[in-house]
Specification:
DUF5916 domain-containing protein; 24-stranded antiparallel barrel; mainly beta; 9-stranded mixed β-sheet; Carb-bd_dom_fam9; DUF5916
Length: 745
């Protein structure tokens, strides 16, 4: 153990040797912003990715700034952008120059909201209120696939927001062209007395062949293009005065469901279900969303996971209605799956508690509404939902409220409450109300450092139990170092029934850091050496005793120039199990103290290539025995229209626990995507889990016949081994047809 610590410390001192050779530094936003002027045109453009005569009227902007791999160095390939507008649309075009032309393009698939690490892409961030805090981000790849999101202070992100806009691209031997048309109704901007407006804007590009990232207005590589205090300025636009606009999206669904098995019964049912959503932009600051007879049949199905930790599994929200404005309501510790909170996650509100049971099965939602207000001074929002009563679930009402006061340039204080009111179920249980209240804050100390906190309390009318939770975090990010210290506590009785907490009765301490070395000593194939250390320490809140400790040392982490990586972790671990502690995978493990060391490695080839592979492994002690873990992932994309992936995960238990449990638990996943274009795709996956002998099929045909108007055909099949004797297979099949139509007034 002493030798391992010595090796780790030796590796961690390596970056200091070449620290002086890192020339890139954090710089403050320039007081003089670059500007790009928009040109007015009288008529609508044909959006086809081929820039017609009207584009010659606009003055081009060039001279992008290199962010990666060498901040501030001369670019190999520049980008030329232009901006036009008329009474209906804001138009943006980009000519992404490249001497290799089509040969250099990297586009693995046509997935909406594609991975920015894997694709050539061009995009822009628009700050319509020019408050240097909020932005709409719209991105495309060379095949017109769309990616969009909302950002707030470059800290909170609505990654699954889908805006109404259009883009078409054209690929040539000298580069590729992107042509955007954004309706004014999609954009948010203030009502002013002035005819002309100025907005914050920045443009960015990733040339994936050389993994070269650039932006029009410069910002440090530690940040992202949504850090709007580093943005330039769009001038010369005369948008129409903002007016209330309404977007309706009705749907019609037809489905059949078939079940077979002694535990779930033998029956077939058919359902015809209408419903829909209405979005009303009451003014530039306020948006009201309403949903009726809500259905999420087209949402991605949860994937199976075999959990070998002592923490609850967090499944992400996949339903579109709840994804929008998620960053306003979904605050909490580690809301963006970063490493700074360790394995702990605390959220006072988690939308998956509405309309889904604990197993992820849908519960009907009769109606709901969400109103959000955003301005320079404050943000506020509210959600109310009515969940229908069924044979197994009582009628339930939900209410969520959120308020945030902006202080100074990028600081804020806020509060959140949730209420769940459950009616009685068949006179077998009485109704009750669960409450959670929270207060939180975020303070940007300087360009690199921030501090945030949240305190929460819960109460339940059913048991009169009251609980408390809180966390605080200091976070610092520069071009050379990422560091943090997170402290959190969850009492035994904290019960956020409309939220999520990884574990109760715990005090968590999770400091950590990563060095980001770009020294001149590195060979050309290596972009960064990033060793680090992450500590996870958990005490029982009621007794103060240490119950878990992990020293997650990362002496080697290599980021390659092509986007691949290789890393080694060594994790000495301490575990103390008591009567009330859950056991991983329900393995029988005697109470007591367990000490062991686990080692792991992570590796990946270039994720933008037609064929890419990831291989991860972990081995070492585990509760008195051994556990070996292997994960293999591969993706083959011979064309952007075709993408196939295979993932294999296996846990090999050897003499674990008091009964010397030895078994192999394996999970196979196959995904496929066949796309005529980004708007017409056939998507499917299959999973085989040897734990419980579970098989899952999901196949979905998606056709976006108009922007955000869809036709879905969905097939789901689930089979698993029952728990009763004699053991037999249980089967569920579901076939769904759904059409949605969007109309904006």
């Amino acid at each position: 153990m002493r030798f391992l610590y010595f090796i780790n410390i030796l590796f961690l001192f390596v970056p200091f040797i070449s620290y002086s050779q890192n020339s890139a530094a954090i710089f403050a936003p320039d007081s003089i912003k670059r500007t790009i002027e928009a040109t007015e045109i009288p008529s609508n453009l044909k959006i086809d990715g081929k820039l017609e005569e009207e584009w010659k009227l606009a003055k081009p902007a060039t001279q992008f700034f290199q962010i990666e791999p060498y901040q501030g160095k001369t670019l190999n390939f520049d980008t030329e952008i232009r901006v036009l507008y008329n009474k209906q649309f804001l138009y943006i075009s980009a000519f992404n120059k490249d001497s290799l032309g089509k040969k250099s393009l990297r586009v693995p698939d046509f997935r909406r909201d594609f991975s920015s690490r894997s694709h050539d892409h061009f995009g822009f961030s628009i700050d319509g209120f020019n408050d240097k805090r909020n932005a709409m981000v719209m991105v495309t790849n060379p095949y017109s696939t769309q990616r969009d999101l909302l950002t707030f202070d470059d800290v909170l992100f609505d990654l699954d927001w889908d805006g109404l806009w259009r883009v078409r691209t054209h690929r040539t031997d000298s580069g590729w062209v992107a042509e955007f048309a954004i309706p004014w109704q999609t954009l948010r901007y203030p009502r002013t007395d002035s005819t002309n407006q100025s907005w914050g804007i920045n443009f960015f590009r990733n040339r994936r062949y050389s993994n070269e990232y650039s932006s029009w207005n410069p910002f440090p590589r530690a940040f992202s293009p949504s850090r709007m205090d580093y943005a330039g300025t769009l001038i010369g636009i005369k948008p129409p005065p903002p007016s209330p606009n309404i977007r309706i999206q009705p749907y019609l669904l037809v489905s059949t469901k078939n079940s077979n098995g002694s535990e779930i019964g033998d029956h077939t049912s058919t359902e015809v279900k209408p419903g829909g959503e209405i979005k009303w932009a009451i003014n530039p600051n306020t948006v009201l969303d309403m949903t009726f007879n809500t259905d999420f049949a087209q949402a991605d199905v949860d994937r199976q996971v075999n959990n070998i930790t002592r923490f609850g599994i967090f499944f992400p929200e996949r339903r579109q209605f709840f994804l929008e404005n998620a960053s306003l309501f979904g605050v909490g510790q580690a809301p963006n799956d970063d490493l700074s909170g360790g394995s702990m996650r605390i959220q006072p509100f988690f939308s998956r508690r509405i309309g889904l049971d604990d197993s992820g099965n849908p519960i009907p939602i009769d109606a709901g509404a969400r109103m959000v207000y955003r301005s320079l001074k404050r943000n506020a929002g509210g959600i109310v939902m009515r969940q229908r009563g069924t044979d197994g679930s009582p009628l339930t009402h939900y209410a969520i409220g959120r308020y945030v006061e902006n202080i100074g340039k990028q600081n804020r204080l806020g509060g959140l409450f949730t209420m769940k009111q459950t009616e009685s179920l068949h006179d077998t249980s009485s109704g009750y109300t669960n409450w959670v209240g929270a207060a939180d804050g975020f303070f940007r100390i300087n360009e690199s450092a921030s501090f945030n906190f949240m305190v929460m309390g819960s109460a339940s009318g059913r048991s009169n139990d009251q609980g408390f939770a809180a966390y605080a975090q200091y976070f610092r990010r520069t071009n050379r170092l990422i560091s943090w210290w997170t402290q959190s506590i969850v009492t035994q009785n904290f019960n956020p029934e409309v939220g999520f907490v990884s574990r109760n009765d715990v005090i968590a301490t999770t400091p950590g850091f990563f060095f980001l070395d770009r020294g001149a000593w590195m060979p050309k194939w290596l972009r960064g050496f990033e060793p680090g250390l992450m500590i996870e320490m958990y005490h029982r809140a009621t007794t103060g005793e240490l119950i878990e400790f992990q020293f997650n040392s990362n002496p080697i982490w290599l980021n390659l120039q092509n986007g691949g990586f290789f890393g080694i972790l060594i994790n000495p671990t301490f575990q103390r199990l008591g009567d009330t502690d859950e056991r991983p995978l329900d393995i029988t493990i005697t109470n007591g103290v367990y000490k062991y060391v686990r080692s792991s490695f992570y590796s990946s080839t270039d994720p933008s290539r037609k064929f890419t592979v990831q291989l991860n492994g972990e081995t070492g002690g585990y509760y008195g025995g051994k556990l070996h873990f292997l994960e293999f992932f591969s993706r083959y994309s011979p064309l952007p229209h075709l993408a196939f992936t295979f993932r294999y995960q296996a846990n090999f238990f050897r003499n674990v626990g008091s009964e010397n449990f030895s078994d192999d638990v394996q999970l196979y996943t196959i995904d496929g995507r066949v796309a005529l274009n980004p708007r017409l795709q056939l998507i499917g996956f299959y999973q085989k889990n040897t734990l419980g002998n579970r098989d899952t099929w999901n196949v979905r045909l998606s056709w976006e016949f108009k922007p955000l108007s869809f036709l879905f055909l969905v097939y789901n099949n689930r089979a698993y081994t029952g728990t009763k004797n004699p053991v037999e297979r249980q089967y569920e099949q579901n076939v769904i047809g759904k059409i949605t139509f969007l109309k904006q007034f």
